[in-house]
Each structure stands twice: as C-alpha cells, then as structure tokens.
C-alpha cells in the first residue's frame, strides 16, 4: 500500500499505535447518560459495538441510539454486536428514544439499528416511527438515521425517506474485494444503489456513508471505493481505522498513521464530498452534529 505505515510487533502482527488511545469513560456526563439508557430500556451502538469514542461522546451527552433490539441477523466480520435470532418487535421503542433525546436536550440525534432481515420491511416502519416521534417531542432536533440495506427493498427505503430524516446514512464499510470477509450477507452494489436512490427520493437531504481501512485493502482500492460512493451523489464521508473487536473477528492488517487520513480527506474533497471526517478514531457518528452545520451552509470541508 503505497505510502502507508505498517507498525510491526515482534511476532509479525501490527501493534496498536499510540495515536489510537481514546478517552476512558467515567465522566459525570457519561454516568448520567448510562443511567438514562438503562432507565428507559434502550440500546446504543456505542456500547454494543464497543466504540472507542464512548468516553468522549457520552461525556458530551451525545449517543447513537440503536433500535430494533440488540441482536443482529447478520454476522459481519468487523462488528461486535451479537448475531442470532431477534425476538419480537418493540413498538414502544420509538417513543422511549424520543423521550431520551428530549431529556438529553440533543441538538442532533443519531439513530441506527441492527439488521432485522426476518422482518418484511427490515424494520423500516420503526425507523420512520422513531423519526416522527422525535419530531413531535423535539421539534428543534435534527435527525440522522444510519440504516441497513433492507435487502434492496426500495419501498422500505422510501418509508424512511418519507418520514423526513435530516441526514440519511448508510455505510459501505469496506472495498468490494473484502465483502465476503467483512459483510458476507451484504452486496457492494446494493449499498451504492441505496445511496443513489435515497438522494433521488430527497435531493435536498444530505446523504452520508463511511468506510473502514486497515483490513487488507490497497490504497488504490480505498480510493476507488471512495470514488464509487461520491458517484452516488453522497454528501458526507467518514473514514476510520478498523479495530478488531475480538480474536474471532477479522484481523487488523495495517494501522494507518494520522497523516494518511489527512491525505484521504484531501482526496475525498477533490472527489466532490461536501464534508469528509477522516481520522484513526473516526466512526459513523463521530462529530455528527458538527457535520450538519458544515453541510447546511453550502460549504465543503
């Protein structure tokens, strides 16, 4: 991978570098949000996916709410969320999410979900209802939804778009060659098509996607994937370092140094993205509220 740094350990495996240290959780804001999530019986992707930024984000009273339960029907090679057979559907969940967002006083709310491939609409109704409940309880809060691919059900996508999210996010995650390893039940072209269709359904609403690097892609593959995403009309891109959540998951093959993320951001802006969030600890919802501001004024950064 031209120009990239591999940090080798004595046994030949990449060693985690110093720049991947994150703020440890435990601040008063973190503890308050943790109590609220438990009190309302909610899930967050911050906890379920073992996000390294949980200390920083929860300390600032921001979180990504995860709806449709905490058991996923897919078995992605990068994800720490439990895989299995989800039980039932919680129709009261949208109301509880909206109440949590109101109590936190969030200016920008992010809502994501596990995959629920056993449901006819993949859970699109619950996404749409959550958007509507948040609008009713928190009219001043902007809403970002990070959705699954709904197995290519474009009517399910339309149900979400018709509910009026401020940002529609769907992650491509990795380069097409690594899909069998990282996203075995997903399809690269289907994810690109979702982004294209979402932009076509509501051209005024920013779309967003993200990729991870360090799982074995080449530099050129990463750039081609970024260009493919840009070609859908996508407005916002996030690029972060892949971190192996457990020994059972796909291994990290390379740690990108911070200067390489700077280069990837520059390439992304040249491709036409209005905003690129690129860094070792960047995740889909990292600095999400700031991204709304940067894309709502017509500028690019």
TrEMBL record:
Give all residue intervals belonging to the Radical SAM core domain: 58-274
The biological pathway it contributes to is:
Protein modification; protein lipoylation via endogenous pathway; protein N(6)-(lipoyl)lysine from octanoyl-[acyl-carrier-protein]: step 2/2
Q: Which UniProt keywords apply?
A: 4Fe-4S, Cytoplasm, Iron, Iron-sulfur, Metal-binding, S-adenosyl-L-methionine, Transferase
What SMART domains is this protein classified in?
A: Elp3 (SM00729)
User: What Enzyme Commission number(s) appear in the record?
Assistant: 2.8.1.8
Question: Which residues does the record give as [4Fe-4S] cluster 2 binding sites?
Answer: 72, 76, 79
A biological process term (GO) from this entry: protein lipoylation
Which reaction(s) does its UniProt entry say it catalyses? [[Fe-S] cluster scaffold protein carrying a second [4Fe-4S](2+) cluster] + N(6)-octanoyl-L-lysyl-[protein] + 2 oxidized [2Fe-2S]-[ferredoxin] + 2 S-adenosyl-L-methionine + 4 H(+) = [[Fe-S] cluster scaffold protein] + N(6)-[(R)-dihydrolipoyl]-L-lysyl-[protein] + 4 Fe(3+) + 2 hydrogen sulfide + 2 5'-deoxyadenosine + 2 L-methionine + 2 reduced [2Fe-2S]-[ferredoxin]
Pfam families under this entry? LIAS_N, Radical_SAM
Where along this sequence does the record place binding of [4Fe-4S] cluster 1?
A: 46, 51, 57, 285
Q: Which cofactor does it need?
A: [4Fe-4S] cluster
Which coarse location class describes where this protein primarily resides? cytoplasm
GO CC terms in record: cytoplasm
Q: Which residues form a coiled coil?
A: none
Q: Where in the cell is it found?
A: Cytoplasm
> Domain of life of the organism in this record?
Bacteria
The UniProt entry's sequence similarity note says: Belongs to the radical SAM superfamily. Lipoyl synthase family.
Q: What is the protein name stated in its UniProt record?
A: Lipoyl synthase
Protein's organism: Handelsmanbacteria sp. (strain RIFCSPLOWO2_12_FULL_64_10)
């Amino acid at each position: 991978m031209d120009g990239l740094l591999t940090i080798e350990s004595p046994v030949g495996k990449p060693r985690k570098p110093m720049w991947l240290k994150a703020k440890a959780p435990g601040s008063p804001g973190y503890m308050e949000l943790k109590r609220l999530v438990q009190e309302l019986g909610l899930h967050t992707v911050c906890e379920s996916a073992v996000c390294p930024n949980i200390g920083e984000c929860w300390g600032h009273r921001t979180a990504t709410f995860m709806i449709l339960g905490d058991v996923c029907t897919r078995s992605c090679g990068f994800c720490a969320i439990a895989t299995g057979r989800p039980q039932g559907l919680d129709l009261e969940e949208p109301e509880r999410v909206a109440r949590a967002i109101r109590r936190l006083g969030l200016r920008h709310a992010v809502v994501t979900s596990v995959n629920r491939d056993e449901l006819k609409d993949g859970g699109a109704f619950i996404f749409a209802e959550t958007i509507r409940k948040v609008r009713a309880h928190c009219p001043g809060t902007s809403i970002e939804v990070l959705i699954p691919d709904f197995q290519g059900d474009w009517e399910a996508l339309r149900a979400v778009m018709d509910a009026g999210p401020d940002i529609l996010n769907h992650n491509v995650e990795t380069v097409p060659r690594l899909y069998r390893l990282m996203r075995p039940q997903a399809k690269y072209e289907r994810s690109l098509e979702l982004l294209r269709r979402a932009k076509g359904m509501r051209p005024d609403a920013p779309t967003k996607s993200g990729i991870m690097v360090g799982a074995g892609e080449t530099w050129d593959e990463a750039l081609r994937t970024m260009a493919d995403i840009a070609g859908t009309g996508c407005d916002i891109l996030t690029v972060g370092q892949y971190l192996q959540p457990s020994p059972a998951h796909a291994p990290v093959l390379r740690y990108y140094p911070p200067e390489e993320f700077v280069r990837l951001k520059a390439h992304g802006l040249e491709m036409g993205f209005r905003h690129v969030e690129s860094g070792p600890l960047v995740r889909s919802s990292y600095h999400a509220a700031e991204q709304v501001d940067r894309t709502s004024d017509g500028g690019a950064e």
